[in-house]
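Task: complex structure prediction.
Instruction: return structure tokens for all chains below.
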Amino acid sequence: MKRYVFLLGTRMGEWEQLTPAEQDEVYAAHERFHAWTDERGYRRISGAPLEETPMATTVRHIDGRRVVSDGPFVETTEIVVGYYDVELPDLDAAIEAAALLPHRYAVEIRPVEDLSGS
Amino acid sequence: MTTPQRSMTTAGPEQYAILIIGDADRWWTTMSQEERSAGYATYGRFAQSLAARGHRVLGGAELHRTSEARTVRAGGSVSDGPFAETAEHVGGFFHVETRDYDDLLDCCGILAELGDGIEVRRVVREDERVR
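Output:
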């Protein structure tokens, strides 16, 4: 088994613009993804929906000083709104699983570094 | 726009995602073995601080270089690379539960020493979802 993180990206503020029916479809897509992994015995290690970036805080070091600021680190129109950390057999399965997630999202599939041997 | 009240010191536990954003590929490209070792030691110090200060780690991962990323776009097409067209990407993350948001930010300052931006985002609670 390999381990992949799915980063779910969408346009900022999109959620509020969806109709209740469209929001229901988003939830239904997550449930289809859960069912797909459960039926095959693939482990979902963790996952979470994230608040949109107006509620973000960014910590960075500038010239040796710690700087804490409101808002996201990168100013883009597309933001990460959730993630899944899952065990899957290979990249083909990861792409199949990612395609089940809400079609409004771009799903970035990232293999996880295995540190167990280091 | 006013900033919402964020101090969670006296509130119940909340979950946060700590996104490590920057030149994620440098760990495999430009960083020397010594720099990588020092970097992992910094992450070890961060993990120790979380444990010692009562912040519970629920999940997290170190992600492989962005050249290994694939993106399934809205509509279903698959492309190579991350979805955002920027030089900075998520290289890893922690999923943490805490009662003290300000102290969590203080711990995140340890990770920021490595030059990345550390973006802290609150996880949406079940009761906050619009149904």
